[in-house]
């Protein structure tokens, strides 16, 4: 199945729908919102190892999830969205299971929400992503105006109270959105409370209360952590992940090259020791070429082993090192001898400090680069030694045989090295 082609057709189909049924009263449930949900779906999906099939299901669901608003009242829009999706998808997809999963993802956004699968959770979180961002103020205002224009009765207590109740009942379902958006959502809740002159106590605070694993923080530390909170942008995260993966792949390639050198030269040495050395008592003129051949093979093996030999550090750290941000706990060599309790404490401190955490990621990538530089430098030397050794050894054997022949030796099979 050509997922990309169908995806582009779905994008064009939905865009045409919004143009065909242009409705100026859709101040929130418009094409811009749909595009944002698609983008957020991609962002969240990138944090999980989804197959191409699963990504297709989430993205198609995101494109169609609000199309029903163009034709029916809000309470029935999810069902209509499913109908519109099926009208489009049956032209290109024959797999009933895929169509069923897309339908269930769209229906999972219906209130009260109770998504069951990861794909449904991703779409639900993408649909309400704005609740935890600074965009909430404008989106909430547009949503209220849209409902007023659509003649939806004002809730008891007013729109602000209804928005607050919705925010308090709302939850994010993926760990990524919980960590990234919950602090921002709580700030938006506090703003709504202040506008309604309500106490600032918020039961949602329980969501972000640290566990015993992270120790006890003072209120000022929590405030600082909140101000520094939030993950890096998707682009930077992707860059770090790809860079690290590329370094690890190159490291594996280097180990493979070193293994080839070790294996080939080990075979050469074993053949020389078991076959050729027994002939040296008879063919003494081959002694020097044999020694040259053995020496170069041995040197090559030693260099290749040095290139792959791991270096282990002391494996312990102190709490002072963590406080001063001197230890990178993402590298096993810095903690392999530490106790589990110490390591948990250290990681907890690192995760509370975004600068420390991502600084450690950057240091880890740099460390991988340094190790790679050393590996490839030694492997290059090993290959050069092996190449030069082969050339010199062949020349030495040839010269030895020619000189022996010139002295009256018999260049028969008994004079050959093997």
Low-confidence stretches: 202-232, 412-418
Number of strands: 0
Query: How much beta, percentage-wise?
Result: under 5%
Helix content: 55-70%
Shape: elongated
Descriptive overview:
The chain is mainly α and 418 residues long. It has 2 domains: 226 residues, Hypothetical protein af1432; 182 residues. Helix 3 crosses helix 5. The longest helix has 53 residues. The protein is elongated, with a radius of gyration of 34 Å.
Summarize the structure.
The chain has 418 residues and is mainly alpha-helical.
Descriptive labels:
single chain, 418 residues, mainly alpha, Hypothetical protein af1432, disordered C terminus
Tell me the layout of helices and strands.
Layout: H1 3-20, H2 31-45, H3 52-64, H4 77-89, H5 96-107, H6 118-127, H7 136-149, H8 159-169, H9 175-195, H10 219-228, H11 234-276, H12 287-308, H13 319-323, H14 340-352, H15 354-406
Helix pairs in contact: 1-3, 2-3, 2-6, 3-5, 3-6, 4-5, 8-9, 11-12, 11-15, 12-15
């Amino acid at each position: 199945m050509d997922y990309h082609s169908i995806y582009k057709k779905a994008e064009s189909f939905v865009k045409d729908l919004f143009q065909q049924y242009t409705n100026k009263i859709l101040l929130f449930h418009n094409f811009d919102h749909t595009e944002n949900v698609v983008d957020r779906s991609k962002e969240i999906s990138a944090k999980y190892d989804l197959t191409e099939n699963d990504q297709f299901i989430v993205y198609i669901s995101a494109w169609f999830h609000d199309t029903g608003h163009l034709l029916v009242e809000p309470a029935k829009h999810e069902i209509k969205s499913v109908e519109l999706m099926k009208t489009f998808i049956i032209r290109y997809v024959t797999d009933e299971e895929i169509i069923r999963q897309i339908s269930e993802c769209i229906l999972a956004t219906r209130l009260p929400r109770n998504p069951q699968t990861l794909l449904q959770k991703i779409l639900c979180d993408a649909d309400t992503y704005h609740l935890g961002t600074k965009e909430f103020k404008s989106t909430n205002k547009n949503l209220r105006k849209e409902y007023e224009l659509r003649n939806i009765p004002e809730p008891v207590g007013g729109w602000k109270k209804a928005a607050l109740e919705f925010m308090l009942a709302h939850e994010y379902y993926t760990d990524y959105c919980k960590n990234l958006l919950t602090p921002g959502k709580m700030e938006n809740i506090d703003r709504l409370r202040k506008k309604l002159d309500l106490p600032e106590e918020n039961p949602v605070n329980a969501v972000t209360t640290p566990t015993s694993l992270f120790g006890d923080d003072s209120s000022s530390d929590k405030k600082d952590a909140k101000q520094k909170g939030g993950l890096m942008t998707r682009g930077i995260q992707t860059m770090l992940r790809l860079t690290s993966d590329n370094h690890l792949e190159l490291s594996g390639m280097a180990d493979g090259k070193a293994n080839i050198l070790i294996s080939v030269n080990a075979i050469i040495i074993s053949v020389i020791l078991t076959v050729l050395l027994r002939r040296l008592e008879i063919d003494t003129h081959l002694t020097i070429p044999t020694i040259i051949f053995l020496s170069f093979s041995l040197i090559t093996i030693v260099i290749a082993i040095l290139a792959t030999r791991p270096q282990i550090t002391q494996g312990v750290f102190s709490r002072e090192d963590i406080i001063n941000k001197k230890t990178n706990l993402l590298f096993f060599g810095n903690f392999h001898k530490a106790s589990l309790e110490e390591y948990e404490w250290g990681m907890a401190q690192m995760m509370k400090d975004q600068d420390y955490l991502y600084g450690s990621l950057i240091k880890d990538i740099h460390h991988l680069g340094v190790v790679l530089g050393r590996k490839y430098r030694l492997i290059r030397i090993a290959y050069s030694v092996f190449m030069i050794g082969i050339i010199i050894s062949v020349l030495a054997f040839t010269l030895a045989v020619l000189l022996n022949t010139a002295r009256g030796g018999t260049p028969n099979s008994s004079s050959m090295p093997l």
